[in-house]
Fold each of these.
Amino acid sequence: MQNNINEKKYSAYESFDYLKRNDDYEYFELSNELTETPTHSIELTDVQEETFAHLFHKHTVVSLRDHGFILPKDHSAIIPYCKQLHTFYHYEGIAQSGIDVIFENFMDGISLTQSKSGLKWNEVIDLLGIRYADIAKQETVYIATTYEDVIQAKDRKQVALIPSLEAANVIENELDRVDILYGLGIRCLGLTYNDANTIGTGLSENETSGLTNFGKRVVDRMNKIGMLIDISHCNEQTSFDAIEASEDPIFITHAGAKGVWNTPRMKSDELLKACAEKGGVIGICAAPNTTLSPNHQGHTIDSVMEHTEYIIDLVGIDHVAFGPDTIFGDHIALQQAFDRLLQLSESHEHEDKSAEAKECVVGVENPMESIKNMTRWLLNKGYSKADVAKIISGNALRVIEQVFNK
Ligand SMILES: [Zn+2]
């Protein structure tokens, strides 16, 4: 595989190079995925290889969820590392990802600077400020807040980051915080994480509670201002209510199908269809323990792509994208560190415990291989260039343009 395909500018900058390590902030040794991870590739014929290259050269490649976040090498240091805010961003790896546009949530749930549970207003503001400071010092990525910004990524030889938040807990009961977050660059907001909040109910809560009356006002404000709505971590009722309440299409940025793997984190056929009927798009997730399948041992690109094909068959090629949700480092260690705080095990609960992923997701381990390998898998399977272009680019861009250009 051509590792340098659609490669972006990178000038050897490492996060917080403008500060002195262990003097201005506590430095943690980082996992090094560029040199330590075996890169998996999918063999293509010469013709397919040409199509692959053409797709990445001509189309604005979008990931509905990936992270430049780098984990520390020592897993017991994960929480202290997150708490001190100066977490590192893998500019070099992101430059080699082949992706043009990333919905980036800056790991907003896990800074824990002021609370034990995360997702607090002050924590999110702290996190955005410090990430923007670091981003201001480098040239690989830029913050994109308009559709025009988004589609410039290829010409600029940079990656457009669309600032996103995993959950709207930070709004509390302050409707104007939608506008404040918009003013701070946020363009995509998950209505809930796995818990309930003032807006709606997360997927680890009961099944009958839906969007609150206040939540409907939040959806209305997001529609008015032009902020994308994400229901990836909402329970089914809240998701249906949000689709009905919103005048715009909605994103499920990172999920999979209950029809393949029945856990709370996956979406039912009815919900996937409702999302598509509204014009929305579903991003296929590849985070460990999400898109598993009884047909595959462990979590691999094949089980991830089984979800992709299932959802394509169910809702059509125009409503599917990729939201692999990868990071740099041991993603399982990260899930274990934050399991109790974010109800991760509950969201992945399945009767078949033996299927739990204990290792990384082979073939979709970090952003350097996620979208590239998922694209190669589709080409290897015989999908047409036009259909692949919709999945990696056109479908997401259609909704971004519609919502951002109101
Ligand atoms: Zn998530």
Amino acid sequence: MRPPIFQKAFYFLIFTFVLGFLLFNLTLDISHHQGYNQLVPLMKHNTSRTSEMNKRRQLISTNAPQHVTKKVVDCKGCKEVLAKAAKYYAEPWKLQDDNHQEFTFRLSSKCNGSEEAIITQANTPLNSVISFSGESRSKADVTPALFDGFPKEHIFSSKKLDTCSVVGNGGILINSTCGKQIDSAQFVFRCNLPPVDKRFKMHVGNKTDLVTANPSIFYIKFAALNKNKTPQFLETMQAYGSSYLWLPAFSLRYNTKISIRAARVIKEFKSPIKPVFANPKYHKKLHSFWSSLGLREARLSTGFMIVSLALEVCKRVDLYGFWPFEIHPERFNLLTNHYYDNVPAKKAFHAMPSEFERLLQLHSKGVLRIHLGDCQPDF
Ligand SMILES: *[C@@H]1O[C@H](CO)[C@@H](O)[C@H](O)[C@H]1NC(C)=O
Ligand SMILES: *[C@@H]1O[C@H](CO)[C@@H](O)[C@H](O)[C@H]1NC(C)=O
Ligand SMILES: *[C@@H]1O[C@H](CO)[C@@H](O)[C@H](O)[C@H]1NC(C)=O
Ligand SMILES: *[C@@H]1O[C@H](CO)[C@@H](O)[C@H](O)[C@H]1NC(C)=O
């Protein structure tokens, strides 16, 4: 029979051993998953959620395959942008009128988007020549037929909008329940003909006032808009009601004919959608404006251009679906590239993290607001 003192020492030894083992594993675990540590401060602004999120974080950090964590860490410049996202997003957001006015005044005086973002009869006279934005040598003559299709006046010139939602197509919108909040804005911008049907409506809304189209979709999805595919094209357009359809007809020559054809089809079949051509002059001005602020990308993404336009014409700009990383900032699940598919972006053209960094700066200055978390479903 063992004396009780031995028994106590024995249990104490086992206890210390088990505790040490647990602590050792935990440190090992955390150091293996630096990527998540970058993300943690994102949720610090809501303490009642923190313990719940910590639980999920632990679950992920022990179960997530290595490639999940590597994705955040390996992406060039992502760590820094993520750290900024965490810092800025943790602070409460408030519209800061003087910053907003100062910035939008500079933007307007350099880019004149409210008058020149789209081609109109007022800013592009008959018989003038349009220089393309994406190819320096390409030009187009403004013939009477082309000129007739231009709207007379600019669509934004008459008044300033109060509230605007700009919807990026990021996978972060999945299960966000942001639909009602997005649609509550006076004007909703969307990019690249995203689906807004009942499968997605709850999370992305279904109101659209301006939607952009990358003309390559007309070749790929609608067989270059030949007669057989016209009904399908018009049916797709119905989802956007009577919104403006923004076509970059004069960025690359490849886009010109097909954009003009799209506009003609819409007119011929009396679809309520209103096609407008993006103005390459505006595109070039935006490019030099942003490069003077240190953003030296080969091409600005459409989403980024639309945000710039919204800043000029709206008093209040709310962004949804802008999150260029592959992990959800609060749920930590892997995200698809778009909320509706997982086709990767052309990373060679657009440097989303550096554009996102600019947007974050504007968020932190109270000029616009980026929404990353979920919304109240019955906003
Ligand atoms: C914090 O999270 C809880 C639970 O998700 C939620 O009910 C509450 O509204 C949140 N508070 C803030 C300030 O976002
Ligand atoms: C903006 O564009 C309009 C129309 O082209 C022009 O009349 C106006 O002078 C421009 N304003 C600035 C500040 O460039
Ligand atoms: C979204 O929510 C549904 C229903 O709760 C769930 O089945 C699905 O896995 C969720 N998707 C993501 C990406 O979170
Ligand atoms: C959006 O959905 C609502 C309710 O389902 C519907 O009444 C409305 O017509 C839809 N809007 C558009 C632009 O399709």
